């Protein structure tokens, strides 16, 4: 009898024994599922990993296919970057918050912009009313950006900017601020999100249609590969796909499908894959199902490495590596008993770290209610520091590898993601699948299923549908000063009176000509930014040439 | 009942978070109501125009950007201007409880915060709708 047959025998005996005792000692429920609703077996054994090859499928950290991590020593070298997403009100207020965060030990900045900025409207645009400074900082021109980074040396920090449709403009502003600090672009470290496809699918801050949007993105890839070589030119994001209600496997699948679309667009524009692929980065969510989340990151790394090497023929190992930022799951937080959110965030932090993240934002306990206060942000950051310094999970590389369960989950997420990727290829790629509403529909179906499971009590959310208490309305929430909109409008008025308007007009005309042709748009955008053209003016020029995206609405 | 309850689910303002709006739209539809969803980035003017054009009984506003105190009252004001104040207006999203009183004083019949079961919204609509 072979070892495998012996094992099958033994597992059979165990299962038979359990079946016998179930009448007397029934299990808690008839079916056990993961956070994403996938079935979970009672017990996992080596049988579940039969046919897999350790060297080919897991291998070593820092080596293809990077299942166990992208660096060879992972957190024994240095911890992940603790990066808290922040920004509200105006540049002055946000600058204070960034300095506070740096003093508290964050190691990178992460800029949240308000919605008008994200959609390319100035603060005095009619659609900006009521929105200025609410979910992030309002940036109208280089003048705001200078204040935002006042006293923060841009050659010493790395800065992540959550900006998509107008990413070129904000990157140009960052480069221009650095110039004024005497820092050359090749010294800059950071990331722009720059992922328009997930905006169409899940996040909503699109401006232009897919064609010109993809051009802007490939322009950035090309420009940065020469001028800003350490910049992460895109952060291909599953975070918002998950927030919109997807499962873990869908998060991986739809994110990597978007990634494939960006690589294809850049290759089609004539770039060599190894010239830009090392600067592609990713952004994932962390939900509460610890093992499934760890499996998700491991599977994502393996699938991406194989796509880059086998499908796109990338030769540089850096092109194969899926490096990612993680944010804990905003949609998992409850407005009820908000202190419980600290515990959820701690579990999610463990998931991200055990999954090998390169950087992490931990949400604050009050974020189901409002933007976080300084006190709650401190707890969120301390959660990362406790996991880093006290929990011991960062002392060895990929500690959950070899767990029958975690490896099985990794294989399952991989298989489900590959099935989706095949389906999306059949539809003609991610852009086509989005235009047809396929990806949106899949996500919405998952979101609705989840909500119904919660309402039927099949899925317990502590404090929400079980263990509820009577609560007083929460106090001490952060409120954004409602006058920030007016002050921002006054600043704009003063700027428009003070700047050299002939120079502004000339730079905008040059941008228009470039947009109508096929030149790289980064240089003319940078010129317009230097002349203090506003974000809205620059985006309006491009709206005029490119038109605006019109989504198809469904539910 | 002569006709189904007609509901306009609307996203005022600029935020793109419409998981909640879509879930509630689908739950209302599954409950037998007729539901129209506006999509993102609607001005109060566009929402009111759609409400009148579609002859709805209910406008359900969803917002997560914090601009509710500015945008919700605009919707009820404009409905009043158009003589459509009989339309039931409700709201949901990330809205601090401290703002509920203000919004209700501006004609928002109810505000449903994070974690509200869809059934609670359905029951509220069925109880309070003034059908034409």
In short:
The complex is a heterodimer of chains A (555) and B (132). By secondary structure, chain A is of the alpha/beta class. Chain A has 22 helices and 9 strands.
Supply the key terms.
heterodimer; A: 555 residues; alpha/beta; TIM Barrel; nine-stranded parallel β-sheet; B: 132 residues; Rossmann fold; 5 strands
Give the SSE map.
The complex is a heterodimer of chains A (555) and B (132).
Chain A: H1 3-22, H2 54-58, E1 81-86, H3 91-103, E2 108-111, H4 115-118, H5 142-148, E3 158-161, H6 167-181, E4 189-192, H7 196-203, H8 210-227, E5 231-232, E6 234-237, H9 239-243, H10 248-268, H11 273-276, E7 280-286, H12 290-311, H13 317-320, E8 324-328, H14 340-354, E9 359-361, H15 374-389, H16 404-426, H17 430-435, H18 438-455, H19 484-498, H20 501-516, H21 522-530, H22 535-546
Parallel strand pairs in A: 1-2, 1-9, 2-3, 3-4, 4-5, 6-7, 7-8, 8-9
Helix pairs in contact in A: 3-5, 6-21, 10-12, 10-16, 12-14, 12-16, 14-15, 20-21, 20-22
Chain B: E1 6-10, H1 19-30, E2 34-37, H2 44-53, E3 58-63, H3 68-81, E4 88-93, H4 100-105, E5 110-112, H5 118-128
Parallel strand pairs in B: 1-2, 1-3, 3-4, 4-5
Helix pairs in contact in B: 1-5, 2-3
How would you characterize this protein structure?
The complex is a heterodimer of chains A (555) and B (132). Chain A has 555 residues and is α/β, with parallel strands linked by helices. Chain A has 2 domains: 3-45, no CATH class; 54-455, Methylmalonyl-CoA mutase (TIM Barrel, Alpha-Beta Barrel), CATH 3.20.20. Helix content of chain A is 50%, strand content 7%. Chain A has helices at residues 3-22, 54-58, 91-103, 115-118, 142-148, 167-181, 196-203, 210-227, 239-243, 248-268, 273-276, 290-311, 317-320, 340-354, 374-389, 404-426, 430-435, 438-455, 484-498, 501-516, 522-530, 535-546, and strands at 81-86, 108-111, 158-161, 189-192, 231-232, 234-237, 280-286, 324-328, 359-361. In chain A, helix 10 packs across helix 16 and helix 12 crosses helix 16. The longest helix of chain A has 23 residues, at 404-426. Chain A is globular, with a radius of gyration of 24 Å. The mean pLDDT of chain A is 96. Chain B is α/β, with parallel strands linked by helices and 132 residues long. Chain B has a single domain (6-128), classed as Rossmann fold. Chain B has helices at residues 19-30, 44-53, 68-81, 100-105, 118-128; strands at residues 6-10, 34-37, 58-63, 88-93, 110-112. Chain B has a 5-stranded parallel beta sheet, sandwiched between helices. In chain B, strand 3 (58-63), helix 3 (68-81) and strand 4 form a beta-alpha-beta unit. The termini of chain B are close together. The chains are: A alpha/beta (555), B alpha/beta (132). The A-B interface holds A 115-116, 118-119, 126-131, 134-135, 199, 202-205, 243-245, 331, 334-336, 368-371, 444, 447-448, 451, 454-455, 461, 464-465, 473-474, 477, 480, 482, 551, 553-555 and B 9, 13-19, 21-23, 25-27, 29, 35, 37-41, 43, 65-67, 69-71, 94, 96-98, 113-115, 117-119.
């Amino acid at each position: 009898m072979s070892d495998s047959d012996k094992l099958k025998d033994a597992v059979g005996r165990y299962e038979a024994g359990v079946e016998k005792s179930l009448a007397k000692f029934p299990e808690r429920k008839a079916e056990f599922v993961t956070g994403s609703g996938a079935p979970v077996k009672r017990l996992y054994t080596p049988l579940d990993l039969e046919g897999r090859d350790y060297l080919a499928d897991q291998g070593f950290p820092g080596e293809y296919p990077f299942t166990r991590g992208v660096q060879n020593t992972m957190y024994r070298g240095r911890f992940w970057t603790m990066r808290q997403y922040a920004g509200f009100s105006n540049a002055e207020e946000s600058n204070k918050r960034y300095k506070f965060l740096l003093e508290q030990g964050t190691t990178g900045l992460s800029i949240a912009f308000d919605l008008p900025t994200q959609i390319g409207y100035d603060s005095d645009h009619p659609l900006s009313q009521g929105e200025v400074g609410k979910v992030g900082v309002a940036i109208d021109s280089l003048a705001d950006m200078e204040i935002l980074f006042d006293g923060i040396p841009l050659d010493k920090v790395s800065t992540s900017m959550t900006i998509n449709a107008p990413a070129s403009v904000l990157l140009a502003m960052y480069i221009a601020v650095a110039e004024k600090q005497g820092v050359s672009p090749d010294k800059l470290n950071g990331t722009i999100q720059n992922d328009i496809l997930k905006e169409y699918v899940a996040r909503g801050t699109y401006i232009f249609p897919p064609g010109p949007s993809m051009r802007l993105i490939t322009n950035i890839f090309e420009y940065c590969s020469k001028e800003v070589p350490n910049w992460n030119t895109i952060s291909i994001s599953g975070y918002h796909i998950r927030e919109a209600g997807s499962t873990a496997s869908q998060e991986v699948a739809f994110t990597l499908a978007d990634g494939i679309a960006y690589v294809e667009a850049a290759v089609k524009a004539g770039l060599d894959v190894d010239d830009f692929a090392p600067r592609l980065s990713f952004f994932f969510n962390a939900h509460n199902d610890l093992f499934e989340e760890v499996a998700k990151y491991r599977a994502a790394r393996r699938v991406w490495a194989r796509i880059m090497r086998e499908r796109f023929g990338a030769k540089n190992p850096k092109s194969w590596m899926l490096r990612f930022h993680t944010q804990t799951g905003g949609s998992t937080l409850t407005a009820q008993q908000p202190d419980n959110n600290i515990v959820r965030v701690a579990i999610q932090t463990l998931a991200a770290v055990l999954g090998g993240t390169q950087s992490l934002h931990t949400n604050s306990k009050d974020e189901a209610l409002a933007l976080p206060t300084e006190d709650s942000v401190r707890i969120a950051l301390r959660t990362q520091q406790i996991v880093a310094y006290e929990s011991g999970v960062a002392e060895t590389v990929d500690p959950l590898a070899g767990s029958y369960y975690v490896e099985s989950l990794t294989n399952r997420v991989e298989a489900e993601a590959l099935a989706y990727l095949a389906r999306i290829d059949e539809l003609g790629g991610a852009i086509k699948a989005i235009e047809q509403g396929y990806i949106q529909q899949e996500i919405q179906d998952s979101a609705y299923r989840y909500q119904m499971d919660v309402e039927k009590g099949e899925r317990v959310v502590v404090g929400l549908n079980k263990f509820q208490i009577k609560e007083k309305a929460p106090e001490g929430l952060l409120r954004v000063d409602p006058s920030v909109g007016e002050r921002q409008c006054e600043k704009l008025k003063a700027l428009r009176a003070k700047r050299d308007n002939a120079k502004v007009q000339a730079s905008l005309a040059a941008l228009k000509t470039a947009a109508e042709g096929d030149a790289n748009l980064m240089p003319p955008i940078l010129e317009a930014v230097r002349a203090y053209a506003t974000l809205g003016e620059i985006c309006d020029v491009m709206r005029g040439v490119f038109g605006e995206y019109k989504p198809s609405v469904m539910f | 009942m002569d006709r189904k309850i007609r509901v306009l689910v609307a996203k005022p303002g600029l935020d793109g978070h419409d998981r909640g709006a879509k879930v509630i739209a689908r739950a209302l539809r599954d409950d037998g109501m007729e539901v129209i969803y506006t999509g993102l980035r609607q001005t109060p003017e566009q929402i009111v125009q759609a409400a009148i054009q579609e002859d709805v009984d209910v406008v359900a506003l969803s917002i997560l950007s914090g601009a509710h105190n500015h945008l919700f009252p605009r919707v009820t004001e404009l409905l009043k201007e158009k003589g459509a104040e009989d339309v039931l207006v409700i709201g949901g999203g990330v809205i601090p409880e401290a703002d509920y009183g203000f919004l209700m004083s501006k004609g928002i019949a109810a505000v449903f915060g994070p974690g509200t079961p869809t059934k609670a919204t359905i029951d509220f609509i069925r109880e309070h709708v003034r059908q034409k």
